[in-house]
Design brief:
Layout (H helix, E strand, L loop, with lengths): L1 H9 L5 E3 L5 H8 L3 E3 L4 H10 L6 E3 L8 H8 L4 E3 H10 L2 E6 L4 H14 L5 E8 L4 E4 L5 E5 L14 E4 L13 H14 L2 E5 L3 H6 L4 E4 L8 E8 L4 E7 L2 E8 L4 H16 L4 H8 L10 E6 L2 E6 L4 H12 L15 E6 L4 H6 L1 H8 L4 E4 L15 H11 L4 E4 L3 H11 L4 E6 L7 H19 L1
Parallel strand pairs: 1-2, 3-4, 5-8, 5-9, 6-8, 9-10, 10-11, 11-12, 16-20, 17-18, 17-20, 18-19
Antiparallel strand pairs: 6-7, 12-13, 13-14, 15-16
Helix pairs in contact: 3-4, 6-9, 11-13, 13-14
């Protein structure tokens, strides 16, 4: 929603909005001249109507309940109401567009495509779910011909989109509050794919290969039988070196300074997208080394008491497993992005949503066994009603049954988490925090706690 607000404001529209939780994102909106209400009351709608000569268009997300005071007032006032996806649909259809969908990697792939096109002087318009490093924003109102949009499958609304090029990174069951089984998600993706003029699919995902008719395929596992391939020839904690193929023919090599094979796949999708726009690989290659992941995608936050802190959005079992494996590439190795060599791994995980935790409990536990040391936080509800007996203590017991030798603690809350990290983390730890909730505040909390400790010592002295 913030990306859409920023784009519309940049294009000259008057934009207002509300959120009941204050954040840095809202502060950025205010700086850009967007009116922000920090409450959601019917009076907000009246005030907006009084300020405007024309009736405002009301845009809502799936997270807004039908009894929301602003929404009820908008309905009673007979104002035009759009779902967020209707607005994005309108933007996609009014510009040559590229939409990126998939269970994992769509934010990073969208970011990589945007950054390459920006460095290639294409000046794309972008609407993405993460902060794009070259813009320090999740939105950019470009003057070029292309629009890059992240197509979120969480509520099924991406079936409205009709982009010129649709990209599908992978398909796995997630968002179990909306999809009861994988078949429902596959059907949604089929509709999305059928709406796209061209489809670029990940050949390494068996579910896509079996169910989606792609116009072109990419792979990082094979160079035969696909249109684009990036085959890794060397990787460490700092970079991946890969050979790039088109229809089985070696075109050249490139260096990616972002670790992990999943990021290699995201990069190959971005390169393939640029090639489908007619841009030469020689020109693309000049800028691949500049790629950086969006915020909260294996983001190095800094050093804390000799520990290196990484923050990641991973909350699905596959994402968790992949992120832990990426972290392990950096342990006891000379090649790493940190201030000192990390010697051991401590994983902090915040389960996201009761429905997801209940449905994927065993898969979450199996993914977390890739780490020998784990601290769990309580489940982040995302406004869901708690489900009896679904909690982090149950997840902890399953992990211990799968890996009896593991060290695992369960925090009572985020304050208790800080205490557990202080007590049980080791110097030269790589602390990897994962989750889609307020675990994102861990870095700030750690530093606030450290400052408070220093202050208390000074007062005692």
């Amino acid at each position: 929603m913030s990306a859409l607000a920023l784009l519309l404001a940049a294009r000259g529209h008057t934009v207002s909005g509300s959120d009941i939780t204050q954040s840095k994102t809202l502060e950025q909106l205010v700086v850009r001249g967007i009116q922000v209400f920090y409450t959601q009351r019917k009076e907000n709608i009246f005030e907006i109507c009084e300020q405007s000569k024309e009736a405002p268009l009301i845009v809502v997300t799936s997270a807004i309940p039908s009894n929301n005071p602003e929404l009820e007032t908008a309905k009673n006032s007979r104002l035009e109401i759009w779902h967020r996806s209707d607005l994005l649909k309108n933007l996609i259809e009014n510009q040559s567009s590229i939409a990126i969908a998939g269970t994992h990697g769509k934010t990073t792939t969208s970011t990589f495509i945007t950054m390459l096109l920006e460095y290639l002087e294409q000046d794309p318009t972008s609407i993405i779910g993460g902060i794009i490093p070259c813009y320090s924003s999740n939105s950019h109102a470009g003057k070029g011909k292309l629009l890059i949009a992240e197509a979120d499958e969480s509520d099924g609304s991406l079936t409205k989109f009709k982009p010129q090029l649709g990209i599908i990174t992978n398909i796995e069951l997630d968002h179990v509050d909306h999809y009861s089984n994988i078949e429902e998600l596959i059907n949604t993706m089929k509709i999305y794919a059928n709406n796209c003029k061209f489809v670029l699919g990940n050949y390494d995902c068996k579910t896509i290969k079996r169910n989606i008719k792609a116009s072109a395929w990419w792979s990082i596992q094979q160079n035969k039988g696909v249109d684009f391939a990036g085959i890794p020839i060397k990787q460490d904690g700092n970079k991946t070196i890969a050979e790039f193929y088109e229809k089985g023919i070696l075109i050249g090599t490139f260096i990616l300074h972002v670790p992990g094979l999943h990021n290699l796949s995201n990069t190959v999708a971005a390169i393939a997208t640029c090639r489908m726009q007619g841009i030469s690989f020689t020109e693309i290659k000049k800028h691949i080394s500049k790629l950086k992941t969006p915020s909260r995608r294996f983001e190095f936050k800094g050093s804390w008491k000799g520990r290196q802190i990484i923050d990641d959005y991973a909350h699905h079992p596959t994402e968790i497993s992949t992120t832990i494996e990426t972290a392990k590439l950096m342990l006891n190795k000379s090649k790493h992005p940190f201030n000192s060599i990390p010697r051991s791994l401590l994983v902090i995980f915040q389960p996201h949503r009761y429905t997801r935790t209940e449905k994927l409990m065993n898969e979450l536990a199996k993914a977390l066994t890739k780490s020998e040391r784990i601290i769990l936080t309580p489940i982040y509800s995302a406004n869901e009603i708690p489900i009896p007996e679904i909690n982090s203590h149950k997840l902890s017991k399953i992990i211990q049954s799968l890996n009896p030798g593991s060290f695992i603690k369960v925090a009572n809350d985020l304050d208790d988490l800080i205490a557990l990290i202080n007590k049980f983390s080791l110097k030269d730890d790589l602390i990897l925090s994962m989750g889609a909730g307020d675990i994102s505040s861990l870095w700030e909390r750690l530093n606030s706690n450290q400052n408070a400790t220093v202050l208390n010592k000074n007062l005692a002295a």
